[in-house]
Amino acid sequence: MFASPSDGGHFHTPNPLAEENRLAKDAHLPCPLSENEQDEAALLATPVERVGPCPTDPFNPFIAPSHKDVVKDDIGHLKARLADHALAVCRYYLSCGQRAGNYWTVGNVHNAPGHSMFVRLYTDASGGKAGRWRDAATGEYGDLFDIIGLNLGLRSFADIVDEAHRFIGNRPSSKRPRPRADQQPRFDRTDHARKLLHIAGPITNTLGETYLNHRCIDSSVAAELRFVSSCYCRPTAESDVSEWPAIIAPVTDLAGTLMAVHRIYLDTAPPNDISLGKAPISRPKRSLGHLNGHAVRFGPDKDIVLVGEGIENVLSVRTVFPSVTVHAAVTAGNLGDYQINPAIRRLLIAGDADDAGRRAVSKLTARAATLAIPVTTLWPLMSDYNLDLCQMGVAIVRERILAQIGPLTDPSSLASL
């Protein structure tokens, strides 16, 4: 866009991000940019001085160097510096959380205790970038700039930049050299998961089977689960490594390739109503590898599949309906990202009755709609189907599920259950 006489010889460089955002608002569509990204786009779309015509083309202006490129480079460098120190950022602004492998977990961006929010600490081979975060309970997500702004209640993007500069201060540019794109990762988590699954044995006649029985689950419908009598675990980043018995569940993609394992650490003491048999450590359920929408799969491929969040949740349904194929996404966030097989005829979702569970069901239902796959959501009477099964028994759970699935499913579908 060229200058007009009325604007004093200046023109504004069109900003494609701001334009996309304006068009989305005009069309009443969801805004593609976060508030911070809009502020950043506005900051970069500053007036640039026109200094004269191009010698070879009088219709194209020369653009004098401005602070625009400097600002853009500075923001990009600042974000990279923050990503290099993602762990320090989390410890400072989200001090109520704790490290869990490659993530920092906390209740929310306002530093409440809990585990629903995950911040990636290091860029890994799967393409996940350091500093990216998601709150499974609210669906919010963003980067470290968003954490700083939301945590401190900063409404101006310039204030967030100033605070980020203050935090970085004289910290070194990087704690460790950035790996080249063609460089192998420090270690392959999937390879470690494969080795762990290889040394694990059948779950029959083990503490793992005792755990399932205590959760009212028939172990005969969980043949895919494995067990190790001693599995390493570091409860917190500051604690020593300990060893616990663990159930090992293979997480596979649509082709059946192993992508991760999910571990349920168990207590050697008799189960009680508080621990339910899980080890007395922070987060006794942990994954090793790359979830990325993959799942723990029980039963052969069928044209009707039931998917849910927890292993105990979906196995409770399979205890009632042993012939149904069930998949466990193991986390609420991963349930929303669950990779749907486009060849299936119907998707059943065993939802968890909490905010994170409802949000995951809503996201997955919307994704299934884009594939024209019918969805039936099965809601428990209590928080999940395992609690229903243990508190109410098989007959009531069966009646509850059939009441929800019956009116929406043809007789052949019911027969498959």
TrEMBL record:
Pfam families: DUF7146 (PF23639), Toprim_3 (PF13362). InterPro entries: DUF7146, TOPRIM_DnaG/twinkle, TOPRIM_dom. Residues 189-298 form the DUF7146 domain. Residues 179-188 have a biased composition (Basic and acidic residues). Residues 169-188 are annotated as: Disordered. Residues 305-393 form the Toprim domain. This is Uncharacterized protein.
